[in-house]
Write a structure and sequence with these properties.
The chain is α+β, with helices and mostly antiparallel strands and about 325 residues long. It has 2 domains: about 160 residues, NADH Oxidase, CATH 3.40.109; about 140 residues, no CATH class. The chain has a 4-stranded antiparallel β-sheet with strand order 1-2-6-3, sandwiched between helices. It has a two-stranded antiparallel ribbon with strand order 4-5. Helix 13 packs across helix 14.
């Protein structure tokens, strides 16, 4: 760990050195970092929750770690999920390490979870506590693409975010990117099996939650309901196949399985991947997008929804009707 006095992290006026704090974060293993002042208008949607989590907040630090791109693109989607879980651990470990160092110099703060746990005793959006996306935008770590993912200028969609708050000002703060990395190629829309992302029109978050997050917290009550309500295994198996039950066990034991994340895998945004796409868009589609589009998989949709129509149009998808979540 860096020697703070030697490297001049604490300035004479008590603020944190911009370059010194960046070095501390990079030494902790992150791939990029950005700093935001708490009074930034772009954080207005998060400020109340930030103050609730840590009332002394003066600055918010946003971190990102890049995914292994071939895990993100692999048709074996459990490899993508595994990589995401490992990155989330890296982000949590880095945040804690940075704060422990800062605390030795009377800088206090709290770090957030990259994804889970959530405060499930609260309802709706408040269960999420704080959203990393507006923080990342204000910190210059990316802008929202057509997929509604934060697209980093180098890593595109293939990265994960986290953040922590401190009670000290930083010498200077980062600003939003001047240009959105999104190429408007609409590969995310082509790859989405439930039509949550459309070439034109709003994002259908409900369809995405129903399918991609099937084995995450929102759908858990549906599984519990099947366990309790089924009078025997035959009745239970009408609602959940043995394969689905084993997959639920895997999610509970080792971390949630994502059913999709295809939008992340096919995205060519970012300096590291843009040239590959622009050199030959057709080859990129055939080699990267088509294997995910043609992948045989179960797709979870609500009966009569646009998601069902989109899923049934792909002969490689097996449609399963589920209860409406809310």
């Amino acid at each position: 760990m860096m020697d703070i006095k030697r490297d001049g992290l604490i300035m004479a006026d008590g603020r944190l050195s911009y370059e010194g704090l960046r070095r501390l974060c990079f030494d902790a293993g992150v791939d990029d970092v950005g700093f935001v002042d708490i009074d930034r208008p772009g954080l207005s949607s998060q400020k109340e929750m930030i103050r609730e989590v840590f009332p002394r907040t003066r600055s918010v630090i946003c971190l990102t770690v890049a995914q292994n791109i071939d895990n993100a693109r692999s048709p074996a989607r459990h490899l993508n999920a595994m990589d995401i879980h490992l990155i989330e651990k890296e982000l949590t470990t880095a945040s804690r390490s940075i704060l422990r160092t800062l605390q030795r110099y009377d800088v206090r703060g709290v770090y957030l979870s990259p994804a889970f746990p959530m405060d499930l005793m609260r309802s709706g959006k408040k269960a999420m506590n704080i959203s990393h996306k507006p923080i990342a935008e204000e910190a210059g770590l990316g802008l929202t693409g057509h997929s509604r993912l934060i697209l980093h200028p180098r890593f595109g969609a293939a990265h994960c975010l986290s953040a922590f708050m401190i009670d000290r000002e930083v010498e200077k703060y980062d600003r939003q990117l001047g240009e959105n990395p999104c190429l408007n190629c609409y590969l995310c829309a082509a790859a989405c099996p439930v039509g949550a992302i459309a070439p034109k029109g709003p994002f259908n978050g409900f369809s995405c939650l129903t399918h991609n997050y099937r084995e995450l917290v929102i759908n858990f009550l549906d599984w519990v309901d099947a366990l309790v309500d089924s009078h025997d295994m035959e009745a239970y198996r009408k609602r959940f196949s043995d394969q689905e039950t084993i997959s639920w066990w895997q999610s509970l034991a080792y971390g949630p399985n994502y059913q999709c994340n295809h939008c992340l895998g096919v995205c060519p945004a970012g300096e590291q991947y843009r040239a590959e796409y622009e050199a030959d868009p057709k080859a990129f589609f055939e080699n990267v997008a088509k294997p995910l589009i043609d992948r045989s998989q179960t797709v979870y949709v609500v009966e009569g929804s646009p998601a069902e129509e989109k899923a049934r149009a792909n002969p490689n998808k097996q449609v399963k009707l589920v209860k409406k979540l809310f």
